[in-house]
Each structure stands twice: as C-alpha cells, then as structure tokens.
Zinc-dependent alcohol dehydrogenase family protein (Brooklawnia propionicigenes), 708 residues
Amino acid sequence: MRAVVFHGPYQVSVETVPDPGIEDPGDAIVQVEAAAVCGSDLWTYRGQAAVAPGSRIGHEFLGRVIETGSEVTGLDIGDWVVAPFRYSDGECSFCREGLSSSCLDGGFWSREVVDAGQGELVRVPHASATLVKLSSDGSAPPIERIPDLLALADVMPTGLHGVRNAGVQTGDTVVIVGDGAVGQCAIIAARMIGAGRIIVLGGAHPDREEMARANGADAFLSVRGDDAVAAVRELTSDELAKRVVECVGSSGSFDTALSLVRPGGTVGYVGLPHGVNVDLARLFRGNISISGGMCPARDYLPELLPLVDSGELRPGVVFSYFGTLENAPEAYRQMDRRETVKALLRPGNPVTSR
Amino acid sequence: MRAVVFHGPYQVSVETVPDPGIEDPGDAIVQVEAAAVCGSDLWTYRGQAAVAPGSRIGHEFLGRVIETGSEVTGLDIGDWVVAPFRYSDGECSFCREGLSSSCLDGGFWSREVVDAGQGELVRVPHASATLVKLSSDGSAPPIERIPDLLALADVMPTGLHGVRNAGVQTGDTVVIVGDGAVGQCAIIAARMIGAGRIIVLGGAHPDREEMARANGADAFLSVRGDDAVAAVRELTSDELAKRVVECVGSSGSFDTALSLVRPGGTVGYVGLPHGVNVDLARLFRGNISISGGMCPARDYLPELLPLVDSGELRPGVVFSYFGTLENAPEAYRQMDRRETVKALLRPGNPVTSR
C-alpha cells in the first residue's frame, strides 16, 4: 500500500509499504477514504517531536472496513467508519468513565500500531470499541459530508473539549487563543454551546480571520502579549474573560491565555504543550484554574455525529486544501508555512467539493 | 500598643508601636482578643518572603470593635467580630461574584494597612464589608469557642476552598497533601462534605497523625515521592485519587500531589506556592486539572459561622499552643521546628482551655 513516511525535519514522502493484516482477533483493517493532516503532525514535521525517522504519520482518518478479526462485533465488511485519533478498548475503568484517552490498553497510530492515518490501509486494534459507524447501516456518507465527518476524528472534539473544560456556558464571553483548525473548531463549539461573545486571538492571515468570523467569532485580534491584553480589556470593559481556551500549546500562547483570564476563571487547554511551564504563583492570587488535556475523542463521537448528520454542525469548513495522498508533501509544506489551515487527502480520488 | 514586629530571618519581637486611629470614614478599630500564627507567616519568619524588616506580622484575628468611622454601618462599639485574612470592600465586581480575595480595593494586613493581626489593635478598612459579627447581637462568644472562631479567619475556609476546588463530593476518595493546620482543616472539610475515604500525606510527627485521625483521616502516610505513590496505589486498588488537595505549596509537595492524581482528576491547590513550576505536558495526557488559589475567606464566613455556633464544626482543634502576645517569639520558634501545629496568642489573658 501507499503511505506517508516521515524521514526527518521537513522530509515526508509517499511510499509503498507493507500492507497490514489482522494480528489480533479484535483487529479490523480499514481502507482509508479520507485522511487529514493535523497541526500536531507539524511538530513531527518540524523535527520538534521525538519521532523516529521512518515512522508513518497521521492520526485522523475515515474509511471502509475491509477485514475483521474473529472477535470483532458490530462491524461488517464495507461499513463506513471514522476512527478517533487514539484507539481504546472500551472496557477499562477509564473508558467506562468516558476518558478513552487514558485507556489502559489504548494506543496511538504510528506508535503502538505501525500504520497511521495518512496511508491506504490501517490496522485498528480494539476495532469494535474504537471505530464508529458513520450511519446505522454502515452505508457511505454523502461525499459532501466527508470533510465534516473527518473533522470528528480529532479537531472538532478537541475544540469542544477545550470549550467544555474552560467551563463555557450560555451567554459567556470566551477568548479563544489560536486560529488553526482546533481554534476554529473551538469557535464552532463555543457558538454551539451558546457563548455570548467569542473573541479570537490569531495571526495576521486574512483567510483565517475570515474563517473565524464565518464560524462565529465576534472579534478577531492579530496582536500578542501586552497588546492582546489591552485589546481584550477594551473589548470587555476591563473585565477580561472567565473562559479562555488555549488551542496552540506553545509557551507564548499559554502565557497569553493566562494574561487574558479574569480572576476566578479557567483556561481550558487543548493545544499539545511544548515547553509550557506554569508558575503556580501566577495562578494563586487570582484563583485561576487550568483544565483540559488530550481529548477523549472517542467519547465525543456519539454526541457529535448526529449533529453533523443533521447539518447543524459543519466542522469540515476547517479544510482548505484538498488533494490525493500523493499530495502529502505539498500539503505539509503549505500547512507549515500557514498558507493553508488544514489538508484533506484521499488515497483515491480527491474530494474537490463540499 | 504592643505588636509583633518582624526584623529579619528568625527574628520577631513584641514591641510598643503607635496605636492606630481612624483614617477613613469606612474604618473601624478592632481590639484583638485572639490572634493566630499561620503557616504562611513562617515563610516570612524564615526570610523566604519579600517582607521588609520592621513590618508587622499576622493576619488571623478576632476581637471587639472599639471605634468606628462615620460611614461604618452594621457594627457597634463592643461588637465581637472575626476578620478574614484580607480586607475587601464588598462592592466591586469580584466581591459581588464571591471572590473577595480579588477585591479591587482590598488589601492585606501589614501591607496595605500597617497593622497586622498579631497586635493589640488593628485598623480595618471597609470595616462594614470585612468584619463579620460573631453573633447577631455582637455579644461575646463562649471562651471555649474562641479557637474554633479564630480558625475561620483563614485556615478553615482555606481547607474547605481546597476541598471544593478539588471537586470532592459525597463518597469520593480524597488525598490531602500536608498535615499542618490547613491540611487538618481540609480533612475536617472533606469529612464535612462526606468524602468516602480520606488519605493524608504528612510528616513523621505522631501528634499530627493523631490530630489527622481525630479529624477524620482514614489513612496517614509519612512517606514521600515514589513511596507515597506506591502506598496510595495500594490503598486505592491502583486507581490513585481523582481528588487531591495540596495544602503546602512547596515544589516537592505539589509534585507529590500531581503524582497521586488519577487521570481525569483535579488537584485543588491552596498552599501558598513557593517556586512551584508545573510542566503542562505532565497534565496534558491524563487530563489533569488544577484549581484553587488564595481563599476568599470572607465569602465562606456566612456558611461556616453557623456550623461553629452549632458545634458541628470544631476547627479550633488545630491549635496546639496557647499563650499571650508576649509569647510570640516562642510560638514562632515552636512552629518553625514543627514542635507545634498552630499557635493562638491573646493580648490579654491566655486561653488555657477549650
């Protein structure tokens, strides 16, 4: 099969690699119909993650089940499914608590499993618990829904996880730090929850501002540090925001998030942290909470799928690059340079419309 | 008047200093009947806080109103009152939200106000909002209730604040890190809320273990680091605890708290942090939240006072040294060496019984 392989900083290529097969009776093999490139893949791409050269890459995919192990239940050959960005067994104490991200027998694509999302085939452990059918009969979704459904693998649940962890409720003012795909999904989630006002801190890219405003941002600020604090103070009558969602994970963005939260408020954090150290004394006096972490995406799927089906939720708007799997190097290049927000790659024919 | 003065590391003395007077029409002068030494005073005592030599010290006191400014309402001369460890105006947006600790016109004893709790007299700004009468008619409390009432100035609300911020609910297993007065009050608070099991991490002082067990601790562990993790794993069938309350504020104790919290859980933090830096990556994977901060003690008083009046709540058990104000140097020496848990000092006659 063909798959994207990481070879070192700024080097990804599409290569022929061994096809996976069933290794455990709980496995299924999924033929990928659409895969996405995640902002967190860029940490690998840039050489900022501890990923060995030669590793596969990608953790957001949907496709069709083409083979099942003998113990797989609830899935038939041909079923269209989406995979969350981590597999989980559905049985351990964490899965039962709704925290599949801490599954005791779970794992990550391209780590505990060789295959990753950006390839033609993926072996999925604990397939019955991990994969979620896109419809009750497993039939193919309308092609125009594929981007929305693919966004459920990671970025949409992650954005919602940040918003929920920040404690956003109807009418609240919320600040969202980040204008990437997760930030955009946090905007969508905040709107879905009924936030009163959504203030977004982003970069100086008109396309991202336009996307943010279309998703529901009331204000978009392309400033940093003290300027950002001054701008948010002005927008909030000096009150800042009790609800801040950090969707980047860099030291600078987390620092900004902490500067924008009102005493008594909460920073919901979902940006994969790189070198973020928080001085607890900075939180203490103002009773600041921080809450969030790696999204248990699997647990959000039953809630989000019906909203996509009904058309209420359209997170596929975050995709701005559409290509085939063979376009992966170009997709990475464009995402790295922030020329595009998020890429959707199809091993078969590219999705050209939504 | 006589008051305790900090002169440098390990140097406190009791001296004659100027009497305070009304400076603002909202002020009241309180004649202190009982003052406490706080664990956080030890940071000053040991020279680990940025406190200028010559400063007064102490922030826990109760006493009688002996003078009021022209705009003070609701307080009469002679009323017995308790002061929370920070004064607040009761009017700003934070006070209205129940976060008096962030009052926009509030302040600390011995900082924004020269006087501090360990002295014969204190000028109290925003007296109407800050001071809470010990009974509806302002009459003197029974002498045996004085330790319980004095504990409401700081340690009891602070312990409860930690427990609430950790999210403790009926039946929960909770780990409390710290066996000082705040840790002991957190045990009392956890018991009050109906925690299922209370595990305390403390030192190797039999008197503190005895106090913790009397307050409701089900287990008391005098171990640190990996040994503490192993011991808590054993006590919790390997589950650790979703609710951890950090009552010390040192780097080591916060590290221990983070090691004991189960994925998806929360560390409630109320120990005044000194040099605590949290690597966000350590929280991310397990979805750990941290919540807490400086207790808005004033806001807890209406809830806690009736419980002391009825005898349901006896936080005065944390006092283990009783003396006059002149005994302050000895009280500090004993607390610093952990020979006593907490000291109660009376400018007049010492409280010798409870």
In short: The mean pLDDT of chain B is 96.
